[in-house]
Structures
1.
Amino acid sequence: MLEMKSVAMAVRPILHYPDKRLRVPGEEVTEFDEELAELVEDMAETMYAAPGVGLAAPQIGVSKRLFVIDVATGDDEPSDLRVFINPEIVEKNGTVCYEEGCLSFPGVHEEVKRAERILVRAKDASGETFELEADGLLAIAVQHENDHLDGKLMVDHLSLLRRRLVHRAMVKRAASPDAAE
Ligand code: NI
């Protein structure tokens, strides 16, 4: 199926909670090849189309350790696409609460406690290792997306009560996707 390789970027369907595939931890990326480059392009296009500020591979059913982030959300801001492959958060400092959303939880916004500043080490799409110090929305997005790679979701950070409420809302939504939004 060689001719299929030249297919252009594509928006992929995003899995919604409680899809069990969101709980599958991603595997290390070992091949920095054309297939990976296409996956990264698809993930970026899927994130922009949603739109969202971050998307992890498990959210499109790909159990690999990578995510994309673009926190430049203003209309006039140039895009700031960042790709994190096999990321590791090596330092965390401070605490901050932020109302988070997730493309796998449409319509849900919940306060989540995260580290305020982080140091993350990852590879880019060509396999080069980089380190990034981040704070603000970027630091939150990196921690949120990194959780996805371990099958961890924003609801896991909530109180049992909030978690049950979100769970019920999402199960209801899954039963009638058109009515709930
Ligand atoms: Ni998410």
2.
Amino acid sequence: MIIGAFFLLWVSTTFGCTQAGEGTDRASTTVVFKHGKLSGDGRVLSDLLRDFERRHPGLLIREELLPADSDRQHQYYAMNLDGGKAPFDLLAIDTIWAQEFAKAGWIAPLDEVLTPTEREDFFPGPIEAATFQGRLYAVPWYVDAGVLYYRRDLLDRHGFEPPHTWPELARIAKLVLDGEQDSKLAGFVWQGKQYEGLMCVALEVLRSNGTDLWSGDRDRAEYGLRFLRETIATHGITPLSTSMADEESTRWIFGEGHALFMRNWPYAWSMLQQEGSPVRGKVGVIPLPAFPGFRSAPVLGGWMLAMPNNSTQQEIVRELISFLTSPDTQHRIAMELGYNPVRRALYTDESLLELRPLLKDLYPILLGAKPRPVTPYYLLVSQAVQPEVSAVVVGRRSPAEALGIIRRRVEQIMGEQTSPARLGRS
Ligand code: GLC
């Protein structure tokens, strides 16, 4: 009994529901839209949904929120989609799950929502990630790529240009920290908690050294992992608390003015520029650094909209997905929430660029961003890799040991059909 009550409490706090719709009794059709908590003003999406409702009398769209953390959302969806009785009609999925959900038969094909010609206007990476065995199972909603934020004012004060390489970043951060003598100031913050965000950081660092986690040159891979650990242990530019940090906690530290450099997704930009932000007007954004001789290698991220196979509202949900990914809605989401549109034409839209000039610089970064392996087994791979990378970050495992374990496990998971070499190329 008590355990039951605790379970209910846990479910409601962990996967807490927020209903944004109004007047359930008047509605003849209810669509439940499940998605992670978006950063920024939650009213923007609610307003859009109300617009859609007004065009469809009798329709009620109920938003139910999940925590922002990708792994926790995955856990919820895997639990609820398996068995074909999902208590929702529309869901926002991380770009890395579409293959898995499609293969499991959890989500329905959406080919008619986006014709092949229309797909050409989208970034190709997310479309590829959403396509399983030739059919489109999700429609990209917004797109992400890792970028480096820096404090322009601090670099200027110490006479430095923004760094292009990781060693340069470490050197500049050390010198600025020495010069500032501010015990609260961190040199470089990134997502070091054991979760998908850490996977992205590790991939970006290793790929920008010409290698990868599960394949490619082993020495360079060890070197990349060692660099991550050394930002904390040797260079002293990254606080130990980074080993527990996610996107929002790093944004908070940087946003309060307590960090010189930050790795994050582009969403943070508009929040850092908001009125009242301590760092407003003092921040620059550039591509992530690389190791000397290699190129910046941001990971492709982003979210998509999908429909559970068992939804009883298929027609209206398809229409809603089409509305939420239409050029107008994408424009509004980019304008008001600062999320990057998936439709490429918007990156030359004057009215948007006027308010969000950063989009112009982001375009080549987003276009060149490298996906995580597009495979139904990605989550298994990620869950096997995360604890090992995390153990290196906190100094419990050597990079060599961790890499040995990672490569063995990934090989096991992927079996003979999909070799690690193929993962590396995807
Ligand atoms: C962002 C990205 C997503 C990624 C996640 C990791 O939400 O859009 O693709 O998996 O961060 O934390």
